[in-house]
């Protein structure tokens, strides 16, 4: 129930209804939009919201749902019901187009059974009677005209008319040529008068040709004559035309009689088209305002995340501006939000946004909020917005406000949403403030929910000390003297009356005099609110900066650990390869020694041969000696370690530059990473050795860069199923190769199709140990965490 009667108009719902109506294809859909009202039944609201959400998905995904046009066929059906009546060609064509639309839509959903269950409920148990189309197609062509062969009689009549027209034309041409040769014809060619073909003759020769004069020129010098021979032929044609018209009427009557038994089914089709047009219009409007499907709850509460006023959003988009989103919650603990702040700071827009979105949702419209928002259902919506003074009723502004307050107090319940703009204004503040406080107390005692805007300090103090009431303020940049249009819960706001007056250039003596007259207590309160807002803003900025630094440090530590593991794995591989190569060298050396000894024995130790064999052995061993030299440890560079020196870790081949020295700890820059190591774990190296290390470590540097640039989060929203699976496969291979313990896949909620597809696909990987949803406050089942074994 809405109070007062102009509640919809004051909150902007009337404009919303007009914008939705513009998207309708038919007057039937526009009638349904005009009848759209606020509902209070959960199942009914949920059904309408889900139907709109499903249709919006069809439009966004570019599904092949063809809707050309449809007409209001109810009047045609009423005409068909009457015995002896018949529909005209144009009426049959309108009915035919509408039936084509019906069957096209039904075929679309039949091919996708179960995908859009709420839309399927619109035509549940609705049969497809294609005999209707076939009956009409027997009579009408593709342009909606009667086919020449719609019946055997019509075909014969049409052929006779065609032959008669040819005879008339031939005879007329012959007479015209003869008259022209005799110079009887005036300037001009054959012409039509009264639907008959005539020859323009000079008046003095009109007696020389037998026929019927249909007209003459304004000067009387030219007459338009139909020759006697042609006149007889034309009369026969006219009779054939009458026969054709009678046959067409007979065919239309027969068609009407054949379709009349389907009148009830046609009415069902008409109802389906009306509902379908209505849902389509709501879905198009939802796309225009970028609306989504919030979580619908049965309780009288709400939690709006990034809510935007739809009318303001459309207006700002044309101007290329952005709407500042609104975040607010109202529940059994925070029942009434008291919004204060400067004039033109957005208090009224904040309140109207909440009221309008609630009204839209309970009317079955999607609203421009994030999908994790929660919106409940209210049985009553009360609004006191604007000036309702009435000369006829002898009501002043304040009297009109009090009349509404009386109704609010008498009828408010825990399921009532109350919205009051500029609470307590319209009379002496000395009395208006206490009266408003008393009304607020009674409404709060009745557990009603609501949003109230005010400038009164006593209401701010009352809200701060009363359970169920919550102060909120519209933030204001008191340095640049401009509103920020951001709602902050938990504290009252200053009106910034003196600051704004000073900013617009009001003389200083006027401002100082006003301060004196305001009173010291009020000045102290306003100053306290200003200081509190300034301090809170500074704390908020510091907290954000600290959180960013903590996140950055956390990411650096995580990347450092991953890099350390990666380098450790590489070190093990290199050691394994070095051991294998050493074993090969030893094995080859043993063979060489044994072969040399064997040859010495065979030659019976001759000196020259022995010397030659020893030299060959020495040369072969020298080759292996040279090959092993690069593996030797580099000699440490001389001197103490200082800032900007290059060092090498003793337990690995990693090099880095010294950034800071803190006693026994060194801060090293290793590529893009920062690491703290003990002085005892490093040794200083020269520039020559550094170049050598850079050459040998180029592969490791590349891998370090790959690891550092890898993000453990993949956004799949907006992708098709096949495209998303391809991205997941590539991403998962990289994560497994780099040894990441877990990854985060963002796929959104929607209808849950993409989430199920991805999770079923991940089950085939043996490296995936488990999957779970993100926390409900940070995305819930719209995000999947994948833990890797």
From TrEMBL:
Molecular function terms in GO for this entry? ATP binding; ATP hydrolysis activity; ATP-dependent DNA damage sensor activity; endonuclease activity; mismatched DNA binding; ribosomal large subunit binding; rRNA binding
Origin: domain of life: Bacteria
Chain coiled-coil ranges: 532-620
Enumerate the residues binding ATP.
341-348
Please describe what this protein does.
Answer: Endonuclease that is involved in the suppression of homologous recombination and thus may have a key role in the control of bacterial genetic diversity. Acts as a ribosome collision sensor, splitting the ribosome into its 2 subunits. Detects stalled/collided 70S ribosomes which it binds and splits by an ATP-hydrolysis driven conformational change. Acts upstream of the ribosome quality control system (RQC), a ribosome-associated complex that mediates the extraction of incompletely synthesized nascent chains from stalled ribosomes and their subsequent degradation. Probably generates substrates for RQC.
Q: How does it assemble?
A: Homodimer. Binds to stalled ribosomes, contacting rRNA.
Name of the protein in question:
Endonuclease MutS2
Organism annotation: Pedobacter yulinensis
Q: Give the lineage.
A: Bacteria, Pseudomonadati, Bacteroidota, Sphingobacteriia, Sphingobacteriales
């Amino acid at each position: 129930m809405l109070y007062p009667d102009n509640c919809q108009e004051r909150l902007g719902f009337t404009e919303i209804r007009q914008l939705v109506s513009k998207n309708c294809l038919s007057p039937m859909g526009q009638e349904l939009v005009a009848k759209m009202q606020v509902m209070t039944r959960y199942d009914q609201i949920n059904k309408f919201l889900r139907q709109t959400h499903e249709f919006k998905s069809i439009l966004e995904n570019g599904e092949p749902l063809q809707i050309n046009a449809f007409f209001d066929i109810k009047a045609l059906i009423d005409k068909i019901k009457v015995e002896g009546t018949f529909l005209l060609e144009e009426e049959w064509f309108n009915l035919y187009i509408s039936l084509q639309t019906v069957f096209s839509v039904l075929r679309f959903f039949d091919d996708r059974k179960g995908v859009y269950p709420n839309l399927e409920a619109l035509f549940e148990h609705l049969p497809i009677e294609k005999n209707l189309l076939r009956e009409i197609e027997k009579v009408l062509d593709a342009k909606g005209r009667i086919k020449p062969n719609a019946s055997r009689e019509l075909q014969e009549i049409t052929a006779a008319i065609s032959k008669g027209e040819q005879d008339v034309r031939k005879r007329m041409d012959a007479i015209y040529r003869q008259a022209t040769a005799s110079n009887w014809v005036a300037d001009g060619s054959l012409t039509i008068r009264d639907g008959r073909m005539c020859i323009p003759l000079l008046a003095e020769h009109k007696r020389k040709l037998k026929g019927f004069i249909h007209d003459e020129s304004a000067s009387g010098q030219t007459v338009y004559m139909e020759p006697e021979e042609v006149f007889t032929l034309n009369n026969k044609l006219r009779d054939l035309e009458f026969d054709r018209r009678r046959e067409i009427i007979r065919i239309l009557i027969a068609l009407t009689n054949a379709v009349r038994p389907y009148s009830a089914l046609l009415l069902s089709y008409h109802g389906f088209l009306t509902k379908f047009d209505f849902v389509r219009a709501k879905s198009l409007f939802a796309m225009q305002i970028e609306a989504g499907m919030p979580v619908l709850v049965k309780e009288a509460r709400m939690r709006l995340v990034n809510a935007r006023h739809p009318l303001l959003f459309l207006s700002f988009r044309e101007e290329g501006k952005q709407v500042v989103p609104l975040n607010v919650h109202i529940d059994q603990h925070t029942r009434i939000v008291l919004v204060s702040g400067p004039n033109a700071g957005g208090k009224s827009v904040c309140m109207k946004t909440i009221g309008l979105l609630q009204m839209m949702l309970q009317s079955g419209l999607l609203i421009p909020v994030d999908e994790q928002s929660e919106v409940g259902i209210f049985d009553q919506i009360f609004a006191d917005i604007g000036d309702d003074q009435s000369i006829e009723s002898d009501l002043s502004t304040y009297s009109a406000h009090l009349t509404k307050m009386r109704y609010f107090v008498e009828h408010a319940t825990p399921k009532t949403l109350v919205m009051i703009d500029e609470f307590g204004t319209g009379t002496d503040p000395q009395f208006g403030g206490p009266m408003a406080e008393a009304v607020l107390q009674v409404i709060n005692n009745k557990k009603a929910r609501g949003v109230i805007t005010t400038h009164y300090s006593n209401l701010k103090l009352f809200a701060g000390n009363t359970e169920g009431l919550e102060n909120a303020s519209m933030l204001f940049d008191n340095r640049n003297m401009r509103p920020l249009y951001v709602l902050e819960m938990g504290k009252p706001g200053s009106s910034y009356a003196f600051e704004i007056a000073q900013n617009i250039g009001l003389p200083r003596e006027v401002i100082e005099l006003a301060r004196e007259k305001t009173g010291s207590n009020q000045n102290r309160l306003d100053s306290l609110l200003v200081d509190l807002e300034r301090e809170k803003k500074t704390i908020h900025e510091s907290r954000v900066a600290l959180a960013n630094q903590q996140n950055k440090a956390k990411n650096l530590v995580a990347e450092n650990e991953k890099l350390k593991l990666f380098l450790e794995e590489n070190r093990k591989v290199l050691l394994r390869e070095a051991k294998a190569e050493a074993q090969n060298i030893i094995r080859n050396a043993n063979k060489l020694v044994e072969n040399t000894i064997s040859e010495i024995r065979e030659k019976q130790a001759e000196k020259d041969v022995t010397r030659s064999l020893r030299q060959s052995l020495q040369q072969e061993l020298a080759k292996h000696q040279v090959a092993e030299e690069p593996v030797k440890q580099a000699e440490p560079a001389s001197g103490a370690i200082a800032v900007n020196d290059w060092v090498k870790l003793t337990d690995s081949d990693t090099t880095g530059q010294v950034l800071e020295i803190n006693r026994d700890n060194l801060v090293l820059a290793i590529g893009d990473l920062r690491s703290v190591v003990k002085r005892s774990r490093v040794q200083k190296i020269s520039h020559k050795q550094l170049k050598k290390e850079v050459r040998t470590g180029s592969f490791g540097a590349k891998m370090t860069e790959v690891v550092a640039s890898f993000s453990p989060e993949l956004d799949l929203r907006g992708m098709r199923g096949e495209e998303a699976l391809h991205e997941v496969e590539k991403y998962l291979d990289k994560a497994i190769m780099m040894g990441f313990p877990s990854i985060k896949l963002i796929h959104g909620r929607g209808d849950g199709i993409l989430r199920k597809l991805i999770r079923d696909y991940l089950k085939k990987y043996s490296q995936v140990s488990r999957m779970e949803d993100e926390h409900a406050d940070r995305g819930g089942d719209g995000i999947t965490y994948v833990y890797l074994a």
